[in-house]
Amino acid sequence: MNKKTLRDVDLKGKRVVMRVDFNVPMDKGVVGDDTRVRASLPSIRFILDQGASVVLMSHLGRPKGKGYEADYSLKPVAEHLATLLGKPVEFAPDCLKAAAQARALRPGGVLLLENTRFYAEEEGKAKTDGLGEAEAAAKKKEMKEKQKVMAQTLAGYGDLFCNDAFGSAHRAHASTAVIAKFAAESVSGFLMEKEIEYLGRALNNPERPYVAILGGAKVSDKIKVINKLMKTADVILIGGAMAYAFLKAKGEPVGNSKLEKSDEVDPVAVAREVLAEAAKRNIALRLPQDHLVVQEFKADARTQVVATISDGWMGVDIGPATARAYTEEVRKAGMVVWNGPMGVFEMAPFAAGTRAVAQAMAESPGITIVGGGDTAAAVEEFGLAPKMKHVSTGGGASLEFLEGTDLPGIAALTDKPAGGCGCCCSRR
Fold first, then answer.
1. If pLDDT is split at 50, 70 and 90, which confidence band does 419 have?
2. Most buried of 106, 264, 345, 360, CB within 10 angstroms?
3. Are residue 10 and residue 124 in the same domain, yes or no?
4. Is the pLDDT confidence value at 413 over 60?
5. How many domains, in total, are found in the chain?
């Protein structure tokens, strides 16, 4: 971690513009799972305790960048945050018209801006459908200039910028990366610091044996990280729907099991290449040896455990023998990184494999890291999240980090001085 953090700057009397990840599930205007909001609290409280104020910004969902949409408003999140903090949280109904509210903040004050993605400039993507090459290039250039203006406006709300939104760190958006060009200083929040610390260990200096567990539906989402893991991991365990592409690549029947559909990627061909590379490198890449299968995709369907999936049946979870084998690998591991459930854990009858892996990780004395998205939701649902060493708040971001990709939101932060401690040295 060679980036400055909130500990490395003098915050007293300052106003901090902080990017957080409040992209939380909403149910009729009420915050559902507030894990990401709670994950931001240590950084927010630290800023306030240092005698500073904070201007928070985030996106929520996927609005079309055409202005306000009630379903994607962050106002309910502001109200929820106020409850968690035990103090008022002001709300700015337009993220680019909040200068006066920001300036009026006093030490200890908190302001949350409305959804940054209500502006197309946040993502910086120009619509070029039907345009000629020259006209499309001009449109893209114009949008990039507008993105810079938005970033400069946001940076102007404070004295320095803090990024604590790891879940959006892989996006080169106005509020995540471009803003750093206009901030006097750009530092990491504590959540970002923790993500970099744990995922960085997995990427560069893992404890041995190093076990990687990959599940979920799409091989294409995991291909880059699989290729990276074949250079670092001791064992790779495959589960979830993506396992059926690997089994089919080996010539084994998969019945009606779900296979990824893509116009760009042939998942079976990709799996075949991965298997060949694993064999070439002598990597222990393990696939399910048995399966929980159903004929109808519904929670009360009749199930059976099989070693081979017949026509008319579909796999919905790894079988008990596979669960035992995988959990044994977890128990022996010095480090485990898990991204992707082993089956359709959202349906209780099909959750046993995912639960078994989660329980083994919870009991492991090694370093246990859970990737974001569905895997994080699973360990939360099982009540095992507190027993993991680290549960990442980033889905796509954690995968890209483990691939070895430079994330724009991290790269844009201010480096600690070479040879300095990053604390007193950074304030000279």
1. low
2. 345
3. yes
4. yes
5. 2
Q: Given 3, 201, 218, 222, which residue is catalytic?
A: 218
User: Of 3, 14, 15, 36, which one is the catalytic site residue?
Assistant: 36
Distance CA 78, CA 335 (A): 37
142: confidence class by pLDDT, cuts 50, 70, 90: very high
Q: Which of 61, 156, 396, 404 is catalytic?
A: 396
Contact yes or no for 245/288 (Cβ under 8 A): no
Q: How far apart are CA 412 and CA 428, in angstroms?
A: 21
Residue type at position 250: K
* Domain boundary, last residue among 336, 365, 394: 365
Question: 169-188: per-residue pLDDT in tens?
Answer: 999 999 999 999 999 999 99
Same domain, 151 and 287: no
- Domain edge (last residue) among 365, 395, 415: 365
- What 8-state DSSP symbol labels residue 277? H
Nearest to 157 by CA among 249, 239, 55, 285: 55
Residue 380 lies in a domain: no
4 is catalytic: no
| Contact indicator for 102, 158 with CB cutoff of 8 Å | yes
Write out the two tokens for 376. 């994080």
Residues composing the chain: 428
Q: Answer whether residue 383 is part of any domain.
A: no
Asked if 221 and 189 sit in the same domain, the reply is no
Note whether 331 and 413 are same-domain residues. no
Q: Provide the token pair at 42.
A: 């240590």
Same domain, 224 and 118: no
Residue 348 counted as domain residue: yes
Question: What DSSP assignment string belongs to 137-202?
Answer: HHHHHHHHHHHHHHHHHHHTTSSEEEE--GGGTT---TTTTGGGGTSS-EEE-HHHHHHHHHHHHH
Are residues 78 and 118 located together in one domain of the fold? Answer: yes
Examine the residue annotation and report whether 36 is marked as an active-site residue of this protein: yes
Q: Are residues 188 and 214 in the same domain?
A: no
Active site residue 396: yes
pLDDT tens per residue across span 65-123: 999 999 999 999 999 999 999 999 999 999 999 999 999 999 999 999 999 999 999 99
Q: How confident is the model at residue 371 (pLDDT cuts 50, 70, 90)?
A: confident
Instruction: Say yes or no: 165 and 218 in one domain.
Output: no
Q: Judge whether 66 counts as a catalytic residue.
A: no
Is 339 a member of any domain? yes
Give Cα separations from 301 to 7, 172, 314, 347, 409 (angstroms): 54, 45, 11, 11, 45
Marked catalytic residue, from 373, 394, 395, 409: 373
Q: CATH no. for residue 294?
A: 3.40.50.1260
> Which residue segment(s) compose the domain that 118 sits in?
6-195+407-427
